[in-house]
Every structure is written in structure tokens, then in C-alpha cells.
Batch of 2 targets.
Target 1
Amino acid sequence: MLEGGSVTLRLENVTKVFRTGTFGGGATVNAVTGVTFDIRPGEIVSLIGESGSGKTTVGRMILRLTPPTAGSITFDGRDVSTLGGRGLRDYYGRVQGVFQDPFSSYNPVFKVDRVFEMIRRAYLPTVTGSEWRERRRRALEDVGLEAADVLGKYPHQLSGGQLQRLLISRALLMDIEILVADEIISMLDASTRIDVLNILGDLRDRGLGVLFVTHDLALGNYLSDRVVILQHGRIVEMGPTAKVFANPVHPYTRMLLSCVPQLTAKWDATTNDDPRAVPTNPVLQLVGDDHYVER
Amino acid sequence: MSSAESRADLVATPEVALTGQGAGDVELGPRGKRFEALHFALRNTKLVIGASVVLAFLALALVGPLLTDATPFEFGYPLGQPPSSEYWLGTTAPGQDVFAQFVYGLRSSFVVGALAAAIASVIGMAVGFVGGYRGGVIDDVLSMLTNIVLVIPTLAVLIIVSAYLSVGSLRSEAILIGLTSWPWAARAIRAQTFSLASRDFVSLARLSGQGTARVILREIAPNMSSYLFLTFILLFGGAVLTAATLDFLGLGPSQVMSLGLMMNTAVSNAALQLGMWWWFVPPGVGITAIVGGLYVMNVGLDEVFNPRLRRT
Amino acid sequence: MTLAVDDLRVYYRTLKGDVKALDGVTFSVSDGEIMGLAGESGCGKTTLGKSLIRLDGRMQLMGGTVSLDGVRLPLADERAMSAFRFKDVSIVPQYAMSALNPIRKIGRMISELLDSRGVSYRDTRPELSRRLALVGLGDEILDRFPIELSGGQKQRVVMVLSTLMDPSLLIADELTSALDVSTQKAVAEMLVEFRDRGFVKSTIVITHDLAVLYQIADTILVMYAGKLVEKAPAGELTRDPRHPYTRLLIGSLPEVGARISEKRLQGIAGRPPSLLDPPSGCRFRARCPLAFAKCVEEPPFVEIAPGRHAACWKAAA
């Protein structure tokens, strides 16, 4: 894993428009509009938004599962959308993803070992036998799993928490620099969530860059260094986590914060700002140290 | 949100509700599911009855010709005899052995059915998988192709083509039927592929550097194996019926005995009016029983494969 | 009204045996109370919610009784139970989108539902309009198809419909799980408002989200592996949990403001036991940091302080 470093994943004015209908003749949906931010190894960036905010689409575009309609995504200086064949495979060796539903991420007819095998075949073909087993064991150890507990089993025999950790360790096998974690704990029980999050924190300390996509502000606040808040596909506020949460400026951010149910305080009266109104010429303005708000 | 919804749907069934992420041993894996499927299969009345009927006729088709010395086109037997201990299904007006015709005819039906179903399955799978997985322009083009072939009045085309090309063998007949009956299979497979392609394990395979062909063959197809099986059975039934229709109209191979040809000859020899029921009833019953049995099997299999349709 | 549940046991029949999803729960809900039922997956809370209104598919009532206002509910008898559903015991389904028949106009669907219950749609119409207005919907909603409504509107229609007959008991199963925070807050507050206005007498809110329960529930009941582990007024439970499971669970929830660099939270190691063959004694002992010799004997769910119950040998301390 790279220590800190200058390798950046940069999104610049990224837009995604979905079209329905045969040959694209139907209605359009602006899923993501003009999103610009970057992620570096050694930091966790939270992408926070409600459903329909486009946060999952951003993750998918970074992972090349969906092409952007406009704008550019560059990694280490190279445009990600031009990659194909060899280039794309190399990209996946440095940028990987983990998704929301652990039980959907595994092909149910195969044992879980297969996800490791696929990686070995594509990226580490020369690593075999005891060397391979050792690498695998270390990757599992990094996420707090014992090889004997999880290998040789089918997905349904393991818990959601174990499955998600397995997916993280699969990504680690390849020495990746950026991990896109899309709502990876929302389907896990409360008591296992925090352990998986702590793993991400540890990996960040060792140099991994993480894009943590979530709707849960408390989790974003717990884990991330920087936070990006999306509403209807546009960035409305972003900056260092501590600053944004201590002093939320955009009405949408404040509305979100006031709606989060807490264990120590009751909901107070709803704020009166209308968070749905979009300014006529929206632009991100700097309001503090690295703290931007759309106005 | 939709993934959570579909998950909640799963939670409604007791198996997942109990396990969630907790007691994982109750949910069944692929081997367990096969065992469970077999358990329900043997108890499903429709499946058992349908399969028995089809297998009985298949047995007759395989063994029947060995039980008789007569061949279907051989003349020289007594004219128009009703069934007796010597001629089990009687003889035709021009003096052929009906039983021989019947069992050889059954063979033809099974051969054409299987071959045509195989051809249609392969085409249907190719078109359905590729269109469903790739989406976009490729899917639009393949869908249009599917819709065009679907809309063409199959029987009319087959009649015209058969009339011009004089179908000489079972193989040609099977090819013709296969080439025109694949569209609905393609559509069904495409729809299933769509829903499977959006599953995360397919995305994960792509992220592991797997190409389109590998993803389709190794990730998608194995997860719809029961569906593909059902599709094949339906295609089989449909092919048998279409072949019988063509043969009845006199457009099938004339040198190979088939159940439809039997009925064709029977009608043109006024068997109905002459009351020679033993000539046209067996082939009619044979076709109805085989096709009907296959469809009933299909309904039963659907219940077996889909836990939510079970009545336990 | 009071709901009294006494030693209720509901198992699922599977090919491998009986899954003891709900294994002897006893509690009561009083008039006007909003009781939160919390726990993680597999704890039995959904089974409990379903048993109170409709035993489906493989569920089997193995023992115990449920009484509503002194009347025994015939849970196992599908037809007899039908008389109680909607009028005395009602349920708000989790996904409003799936609950509404897509090819029926809202008004038509409501009238058909009322007809099937022997209630006159015409007589109920004025009250229906009043309640719709209360949640911010106009009468024109009755002429629309579900597809024309937004998710929030559908949720509100479903809630009005579920409570139209002023049921004594309302069951809300995972009502807020899949919703955005803003909608979640609106729906949760609606539950409280319905209770305050007398549309429902008592409510059981089933969810895994303790924070939402703290906001709206009067008491919280925590379940684990088919059994009850703790019951207390909401504020007391979150401030001073007595059962080790509750304590560990609350300790694993990050509040807005907690940062990993300042304080690293811990989860609960291990997994809940299999319900096919549950262990004897306390079901939490394999994962409990306080487990000791006596835990092989199952602790009873008893009152450890006024208004507080727990099933733990060490909780009375």
C-alpha cells in the first residue's frame, strides 16, 4: 500500500444523465450534475446523501460500471474513461469497490473462496501454493478473520459482517490505493457495523484512501476526514468533517443534521429553511478553511 | 432502495427471516437446495403425473419398434382391420400396420421435439443473454430482431417454406421449427438476465477483470439453471405440436412416419367417415398426451423450483 | 385497553426441524403506550409482530396466550382472527409502495377494503377526509392511482388507512428502516400524533434502530435470540441499560459528534445462537463479558427496579 502520496482520484464536473425508452427517446433523469472533488490515499472521504442523491451513481462511475455523460474522472493523471482491456485491468488493481448487500455480492452457487480465486487468476497468476495461501491468510488477518473460519464455506453459511470483511480483504490482496465503500454496513446488524468501520479506519491509517458512500451522518462523522454532501446529484456542501458538522452552513445539511435521531437528545422543532430550493446560478463558494457551500 | 426492498421481500419468507445475519445454518446452500428440490419434486402431483405420461410414451417409442416385425410403410397386411390380438392397433385402409406406424411415429415426434428445442434454446440463449447483459444499443437491436421474428406468423411461414423447399428429413423439419420458435425463449431469458445482471456479484466479477462471455457463462447462467430447464421443456412441447401440425398438413417429410402423417393419411382415406377410429385416435391421443404431459410437468416444476408457489 | 402477552411461543416449521423464533415472551402494553420492540436480525421481534396479527405460512403457535382488553385473541384460527384485524389490531406495512394495489384508484381500494370488513364507505368518508387533511393530503388523492403519488404521500395514505377504524393496537414493523432521515422523522412523529389524537390506543413499534425509539417510544423492550432481555422506560434504557447485551449494543452506536480518533467504539463479538437448537441457560452467555457459572441456568425476566425488567442474574445489582 502506498504511504500517503500524490496519487489522486479526481472527479471534475462529472455529470450523469439517464435516458429511458428505446434508442434513448424517452424521459431523462439527471442523476449527477457537475460534481467535483478528489480522494487521496490515506484519507477517508464520506459521500453523504439521501436516496436519489446520486451518491451510488458516483461510486459506480468511479468503478467504471457506468460511464459518465460529461466531465472527467482521472486517476494518477490518466483519464479513467479511456481505459480499456489492459489499462482497465490495471486500474482495477489499484481501485476497487465493496457494495451494500453482502449476500448479493457473492454468486450463491460457489464457495466464497472463489472471489479470491478470481483475483489470483487475473492479477497474481504466478502466485501459487503455499505462497498464495500465506498471502490470503495475511489479507484475512488484516480484516480480523481467521482463514479456517471462513474459507471453504458457502455465502449463506457466513454472516453479513464476515462477508463484507471478506470483500474488503479481497480488495487488499491486490494492494489497492483507493476503495469505494458503498453503504457497506447498512445491511449489517448494529453490533457488527462498528467493527467493520473500525477496519476501514485502520486501513486508512496504513495508507488506503476510501470513498465512504452513506446516508448516515453519524457514521460519516465517526469515520471520515472530509465530507461531501449531495442533494439531487449536486454537491451542496463539502469540507473537513469536523468543520462541516460543527458549523453546517447549507440549509440541506442543517436539515439532515436536525433529523438524525440521537440517543441522548430529542428532535427539536424543524428548521424553517426550505432546503429544496436550488439557487438559479449555483456555484460552490468557499466559506472557511477548505469548506465549500453551494450558493 | 430497491435492493433493500427486494431484501425485505426475502425476509418475508421464514428461511431468511430466521437467519438474517445470525443463525446461518438453517438456510440452504446449493446442495441443500437441490435436495430440497428433489424432495418436493417427488411429492408434486403435477410433476409426477406429467413426467410419468411423457416417460411412458418415450418408453413406448424406444421399445415399441422392437416389439413388432412390421415397418410403418410396409403394405400387405389385411385391409382396414380393427385392433386384434395379432394387429394390436389394427391396420390401415391400404393395409399397413397401425401399431408399427404409431411407435415409429412416436420416435419421430421425440426426435424432432428434442432437436428443434435444442436449436431454439441455443439461439434463444445467445440472443437473450447478450441482449440482457449488454443492454444499450446491442439490446435494442436484438430486441427488435426478436420482436420481428416473434410477430411473423410462424405457421404461415413454415407452410410456405415447406411447400417450396420440400422438407425431406426430420432434421430439416427440426431446423425449420427451431429457427422460428426461439423468440419467446429469448425474451424470457433476457428478462431474467436483466434482473441477474444488476446483482452485485456480477459487478464484482467485472471488477475482477472478467469479460462478457465469462460473466454470462459462469455468473449468470448457473443462477438461472432451473429457468433454462423449464424453457427447454416448453420448447420441446411446442416443437412436437408444431411438427404434428406441419405433418398433418402434409408438409412434413413424407418418407418418415410421424403421428401427424398418420392423421393426414387417415383423413384423406376418410377414416373418420368409415369409423376406423384405431387409425386416427392413437396418433391424436399420443400428441395430446405428450404435449399436455410436458406442459403439466412444467407447471409442477415451477412449483418445485419456486418455493413461494409451494402449498406445504 | 391493555394487551397482555403470556408465554407466547411461535416456531417456524422447516425441513430441518422447528426454528424457535419466539420462545416464551411475556409482557403487557397499557392504554396509550407506545412500546418500542428492539433487537437485531433473528431476535424474534418480527415474528412477534406478525403473530399478533396473522400467522403466515410456516409459523405455528406452540403455546401461550394473547389478550386484548381481556378478550383472548384466537391467533391460530385464521377465520376467527379475521374479525379482529383492522378493527382491533391493525398493522402498518413496511413498504407503502408495495402495499397499494397499483391498478386501483386509492378511493376505490379503500372502499373495497372497508366493504370487506362490513363497514360502510359512505359513512366513513367524512372521517377519512378529515384524517387525510390532518396529514396534509387533500380529497383529490382518492381519485389518483398509487403511481401518481410520491413515496411520502403513499406512506401517509397507508398510515391513515391502517388506523381508520381506530384500532386498539397498532403494529408498525420496521416502518422507518428504508426511509431517508427526513421522511423517517415525519413518519415517526405521525405515529405519536395518531396516538395523541386517539386514532390508536396503543402502538408497538418494531425496529432495530434504538435512536428512533428513544425519540418516540414510552417504553422499550429489547429482544435477543427469541427471548426478552430488558424492558424499561425509553429514557432510562438509553441512559442506564442494565442488561449486558443492551449495554454493549448502545455502546456500539456512534452518535453524531463521536469521532474514531477521539473514541473508538466496539461491537459485540460472535453471532447469535442458532434457533434450531438453542443453547440452554442464558442465550447471550457465549458473547457476554459478565458471564459466570450461574448463567447456565436461564435467568427469568423479572422486575429489577420499579418499572424496569431484565433477564440477567447480574442485572439486579
Target 2
Amino acid sequence: MPDVERLAHLRDAKDLMDRDYAEPLDLEAIAQTAGYSRFHFIRAFRGAYGQTPRDYLSARRVERARELLRNANLTVTEVCLLVGFSSLGSFSARFKADVGISPSEYRAREVRRGGPPPIPGCFVLMWSQANAQSGRSRAPARSVPSATSERKGETR
Amino acid sequence: MIKRISHAPVWVLDQDSAKKFYTEKLGFEVRTDATMDDFRWLTVGPKDQPDFEIILAKPGPPMVDEEAAKAITALVARGQLGAGAMETDNCQRTYDELTKKGVQFLQEPADRPYGIEAVFRDDSGNWFSLTERKPG
């Protein structure tokens, strides 16, 4: 059987990043949550989730930024700081690498689409997580959730 | 015609611990806890919803073979399986209550088009949405 206890500790570390992504999380503290030294933590996390903790955290921040850009009336700089990036440069670079277009282009496209697709937020959260795990090796950069859903009268 | 869903399974890693979690933390009631040979049939449900039961199932024979059980166990422990959405009349208050009891949340209550939603895990690692629906 898999080492459930070990996986649960790594899961705690991942949940910490999902929950507190907006905080200035450092790797040392995240590793401590899982009961690992920094070095072993990076390896163990990658073993379980297919990407480094740093990449996971950045992907989570970009995903949360996409949500704010879709839904909130904030400037790109405000969104950048709200999701935990400390510089606009690194935010824009990472966003473009993940999504394929810049944050302002992304928002303009979402506005043209007429609002967010009727998909429950919990699924968007988990979708981006699974996609982050498989998306690293995919080329070109992964796309955003398709908004071509059918709207049947009303959203749930 | 199918009338309603009466049972749905959730894979759990330890049935004793799951029973405690679902009753003591989530406030569910035990509907059945019966053991036949090595097989334990354990179901729980919310007090306000008597016609629906969650089967707290342990991955293993006879439901799945050993190899499948290993794969399911790893998925659950890694936190990658979502088991459903639960409704509350007050998301923030339930969030506060459950947090106080030590339930782990990976998303605080957030405003969505369909309501206020938080996301938590059970003691095995399954994630659930906790939603207060918007009226209408």
C-alpha cells in the first residue's frame, strides 16, 4: 500500500499553498508543514505531484489571478499583488508562460466573452490543480478553461 | 423513471476515523455500520436529509482488487479526488464552526455566481464544496 501518512503530509503542504497563496510563503515554511527539510521536500513533492512546490505555487497564483481578472474590477498591478507576486515583471512573465497571453489581453478577451462561464468555482480550483500537474510538459502553453459551455437558461 | 439518488460512495482510508470525522466534525448521523466477514458496510448522512446516504468505503476486495485499491488509496491520500458538494444555510458560520473543530479548508468562503462557497477536505483527503446557495 502507498505510504498514506507521507502523502497526507505532502497534501497538507499543497493545501497550505492553495489556501495561503496570497501570503509571502517561503519554501522553508512550506517544507516544515510537511515535516521535511527543504531539499527532501522539493524531491518528495515533485514525486507526488509532478512539479516542484515553487512551480505549483506560481501556477496557483496565476490561476487565482485569472479568476480576479475575469470577475473583479481591479488593475493588473492590483491583481498581481493580491495573488502574492511581488513584482509585476515576474507576474506578467509567469502569466504569459502559463496562459499564452498577457494579463491585460486575457481580461480583454474575458470581457468580450461576456462574463465567466457557469462552472462551479470548486471545480475551477481543482481543474487548474490537475492541469498544472500535467501541463508543465505540454507545448505550447496551456489554455484557459473553455468558455464555450452551453448556458441552459440559468446557471446553477 | 429514476426518482432520486439514494447512495453514493466516498473512498476513505480508515473507516473508524472516517466515521468519527463525519459524525463528530460534520455532524452527520450513522445510518448503518455492519460487518460481514471482513467487509464493513458503513453509511452516514446529514440529519436533515434522511433519504440520502454516503457509503464510507475502504478501497479493497471485494469492491476492487488489490492493485486498484493501491491506486485509489494514493489518489485519495494525495488529495486528488473530489467527492461532492454539500449545502449549508450559512457558509461563513459553518466554515467557522468546522475550522474550530479542526476541519481543513483549502478555500475560505468566496462569493460565486451561484452562492458562497468554501472547499474543505475530509480526514482521508477527499475534497468537498461547501456552498450556501443564492436564493432564486
